[in-house]
Amino acid sequence: MFSLERLIIMIPPFLFAITIHEFSHGLAAFKLGDPTAYNAGRLTLNPIHHLDVFGTLMLFFVGFGWAKPVPINPYNLKNPLKDQLWISLAGPASNLISAFVFGMIIRLLGLAYIPVAQSSVAGILIQMVVFSLQLNIILAVFNLIPIPPLDGAHILEGVLPNSSREWLYSYEKYGSLILMGIIMLGFISGINIFGIFFTPFIKIFSYLFAGI
Question: Rounded CA gap, 192 and 84, in Å?
Fold first, then answer.
């Protein structure tokens, strides 16, 4: 569990990151001819419409969560495989662009090097910006993992030849179980498995975007 101060630092960046991610999926789908997300009220920057109850609870218990997936109807798309690839890519791309923006804010204002008390208002705001950078990197990388129902699986589906695509479909129903198993294994063992995986990417992009 996290302290109140830590939750104050985490919640706004989390709401922003998942909202921009799902909104980008919906917007890309809408531009490609599928109004399903729009008709469902999901083409919005209001985070309440994107919250997933279990995904939000996981933020409090394991420090990482997710949003409710935007509904997509492939029958509304002219080229379902190709269009779903771009729709899926829109989410991680939006998080990576957001990470770049937060990185530029940190770099230009020198936020990583301002000597302020962490518990002060200024300190909390600086930590919030730094966490926003890191969280958007994490969401971008996490969603590019080619395990259903993550975006990476749909991106892989769009580039694989027909013969290999059947292999992807064969384990699609196990994707959520695999992800949940990894999360639970880390929770039980006390080893942050995803943290170990994400750390190199956080370091690389934090240095590229923010110089830290």
Answer: 31
C-alpha 127/C-alpha 125 separation (Å) is 5
Backbone angles phi, psi at 67, to 5 degrees: -105, 175
Q: Which of 167, 131, 129, 122 is nearest to 146 (CA)?
A: 167
Question: How large is the C-alpha radius of gyration of the chain?
Answer: 18
Q: For residue 144, report the phi and psi dihedrals to the nearest 5 degrees.
A: -85, -5
**To 10 degrees, what angle do helices 193-210 and 121-143 make?**
110
Catalytic residues: 22
Q: Give me the average pLDDT of each 10-residue run along the chain (212 residues).
A: 78 94 97 96 94 79 77 94 94 97 94 77 91 94 89 88 73 79 80 85 95 86
Phi, psi dihedral angles at 66 (to 5 degrees): -150, 170
